[in-house]
Every structure is written in C-alpha cells, then in structure tokens.
Amino acid sequence: MKNKIKKIQMRKILNSILIITFLIPSISISIPKSKGRTYAPEEGTFDRRKRIVIQPKCRLISERKVPGDVVCTYQSQKRGAKDKEIYLGSPGNTCQKEITCPKK
C-alpha cells in the first residue's frame, strides 16, 4: 500500500517538473526584454508605421563629351528644381537614363 502511494507521489512530482520545464521557456519568451514598447510587424502586411523615404527621380536630358570627361545633365521630377550636372570622370562611361536625384 505504501509503495503505491509513493509511486503516485513520484508521478505527480515528475509530471509537475515536466509541466514546469515546458512552461518556463514559453513564459520567458512572452515577457518583453526591454522596458519600452516593442513592435514586430507581421510578414506580408502593409505597415503604416514603417518609415518610407521617397526620393525623386532625375531623367537624362543631355550627354556632353568634354575632352577627358563626360557630363550628364539630369532634370528632376520636382517642379522648379534646377537641372543637375554630373561629371563621370572618364571618357569611356555613358550616362544612365534615370537616376535618383543627388541632394546637392
């Protein structure tokens, strides 16, 4: 009789140990590690909180060949912006038809 009671107690102890070992990692994962709010967007969803920087495109107007250099003149999509001139630095290069506008 005492043997059966000991077996039942051992099973309860082992079951509780197993349950605790499975619960502790899941509890520790759910607790945020930083003090501030954390945010992880779901994959495949459009997230309005992501910061998107849209840079204007510049289209090629003219390509001039200066001795020892090539000068590309680009026009910005923004109205009223000045045309941008880019010096490629070697006579063998050619201008791209469209680039992202340089800041200066």
Figure out the total of helices.
1
State the total count of DSSP E strands: 4
Counting structural domains, the number is 2
Our measurement of the CA-to-CA distance between the termini, rounded to an integer number of angstroms, reads 90 Å
Q: What is the percentage of strand-forming residues?
A: 15-25%
**Assembly context of the chains:** single chain
Shape: rod-shaped
Question: In short, what is this structure?
Answer:
Helices cover 28% and strands 24% of the residues. It contains one helix and four strands, in the order αββββ.
Structure, explained:
The chain folds into two domains: about 1-30; about 55-100. The protein is α+β, with helices and mostly antiparallel strands and about 100 residues long. A four-stranded antiparallel sheet has the order 3-2-1-4, with no helix packed on it. It is built from one helix and four strands.
Topology:
Elements: H1 2-30, E1 57-66, E2 69-76, E3 84-87, E4 98-100
Antiparallel strand pairs: 1-2, 1-4, 2-3
